[in-house]
Amino acid sequence: MLKAIKIVLVGTSHPGNIGGVARAMKNMGLAELCLVAPRAQFPHPEAVLRSVGATDILDNVQIYASLEAAVADCTLVAGSSARSRHLPWPLLNPRELAGRLEEELVHSEHRIALVFGREDRGLSNEELHLCHLHVHIPCNPDFSSLNLAAAVQVLSYELRMAVLASQENSSPAEELPFGTEWDVPFASGEALEHYFEHLEKTLIEIDFHDPNKPRQLMSRLRRLYMRARPDTMEVNMLRGILTATQKAAKKSSESQ
Amino acid sequence: MLKAIKIVLVGTSHPGNIGGVARAMKNMGLAELCLVAPRAQFPHPEAVLRSVGATDILDNVQIYASLEAAVADCTLVAGSSARSRHLPWPLLNPRELAGRLEEELVHSEHRIALVFGREDRGLSNEELHLCHLHVHIPCNPDFSSLNLAAAVQVLSYELRMAVLASQENSSPAEELPFGTEWDVPFASGEALEHYFEHLEKTLIEIDFHDPNKPRQLMSRLRRLYMRARPDTMEVNMLRGILTATQKAAKKSSESQ
Q1: Domains and CATH numbers, chain A
Q2: Domain tRNA/rRNA methyltransferase SpoU type: where (chains A, B) (predicted)?
């Protein structure tokens, strides 16, 4: 199960932290590390030093220009976040996230991204809105700054504990969280982004949405659909509705 | 309960690790740090740097010549250990240790020490024998070297989780599932039914849905939105979109 998980670091400043993260990952059995627009130079000798031998992970790092691209193939994106945000979003602690691992990975195509933000200011709101859910490590409210590698360590530890527990329990089929096995794989990050683009375009065409006065419309819709976690068939259905809506609006505007 | 726990580092080589440990501790709400025969110079600027503000812990560090002296006031001593030892010893994982916290601390005089060994070779057998039990962080057997601060982070995290759980059990207030209190009440069953009626009507008007050939369309949409649990504001927003869609479709059909 750990093979289906990647760690994504956004805008990391210190090469040493990238090495520390690689070490924490390898220690817990994770292998795939992605960097999004790193501010640190990479590769860098300090990263190798701090990885203390996890150089295979560093050698296979993938670098992306945007978080959107990094999570395009992922069916669950969990972003590390401080507790309070302007717009409430589903928030789990690391154990609750790990507890969902098994059900998340019932389909072999499913892939999970754990996203960690900048050392100084975490993830932006736009980046957090690319996530299905947010993870918060419970910490001392008066001293909540966690080292990046330490945060990855805690999350990876919880995932490893969940995998070990699931191996122990793995004989008689356990009760699934849904009445039956979910019949269709979840939509990928890329498919969801295409849906949100299509949705925004359509809302403009039917005069419901004005991008110059966005209010929080798209954020609220995104939060709603991310919470529901549409599967691939549902996304096709939702896009079919949008296409039918556009057709209706187009006929209307053409005939005016 | 966290006040009754101290972290003991034996023979630490790198001052930076002492700072990293202080940061991890403070982050999880621990305060008391002891050094036993440190090989690193201490105090040291590198420790201050890596503590990122946990200097209060560094300022109050107590230094001992032997582990025996450091744990003299402790009622439970848990030593961090690799998995296999010549002489079998009670071995717990961090969660199992944390699960014992509450019963360990039924008496207010009880004090717990968590002992961590040298970066390069851990605790000696003599030191491990000063411990009531050994703690092992489950890790990749091919890459088991854990950074000292990372090990303290994982143990402290488990202790904090246990304390939070025990506080929750003792007060009725439930933990909130979102990053902040959800700002709007969930939609009532009635409001949702009105939404689904409105949705179906609209889908018929834009020629997406044929009630005579329903397939599973409405069931699938219902399942999707029920999963998301829309709040009242979200239902208003969704219905606003439907009304705008109907307006577009109406204009279109009137003009035909």
Answers
A1: 2-168 (3.40.1280.10), 189-255 (1.10.8.590)
A2: 5-157
